[in-house]
């Protein structure tokens, strides 16, 4: 029982490690020291320079918030693109090029799906039959002047009228759009609230705008704490076991890593959010109980 708990915690820490480091360790796990060094170096810039990526309707609605696992037109996922900037570029639009070797994708481009099927171009060919190079020319026919989908989004507008938008926190705030809370995770893209992977029209984004509440910041740091605070918490007692466990099952680790989907993004962040809510409620109950017990 105890051993299982230790292993569960190690796996949980491995998941957290993966969400923070992404592929930046080049496939070889950081030592605890390297991990701390990575966080010290990368997290401040990541929080400062986070890029929000969404697929925006001409009505101004973000019909899709892009997360780490959301595929690009180039077929690679958002997290495989250059999502961390030490200093933000001055020019607009900000490019988020693909980092996969020889991929011609110059900036992340969301492509909608119709159910489980990718939408087709008006030339009848699939997105992956087109080049991910600028202009998105078709490689399967000569009549196509570049990928163009007439698929109608749930917002009522055609796909081609939408735009993949990359913007900074200030740019979103200026438009009154939610920015969510600061998180240390890589490639968070447009995810600002939990359930935000749902399509715009059915999303209840209550993440709000601005700084986390005082309640959140003042709460004691625990293993279930706000991920940003937790990331800066010193290495925990089981930090030593993380590389070991992950190392001994590195193949399984890699497989499950490769199998991650957008649903996993949702499940992971939703779980963190629920844990946090539980903690806050429990803390409130503790605060209240001594008062009630004093009553006659
Ligand atoms: Zn690519
Ligand atoms: Zn791409
Ligand atoms: Zn085409
Ligand atoms: Zn074609
Ligand atoms: Zn739409």
TrEMBL record:
Family named by the database record: Belongs to the FAM221 family.
Polar residues composition-biased segments: 234-253
UniProt-listed PANTHER family: PROTEIN FAM221A (PTHR31214:SF2), PROTEIN FAM221A-RELATED (PTHR31214)
Organism: Ficedula albicollis
Ranges where the record places region Disordered: 233-263
Protein name: Protein FAM221A
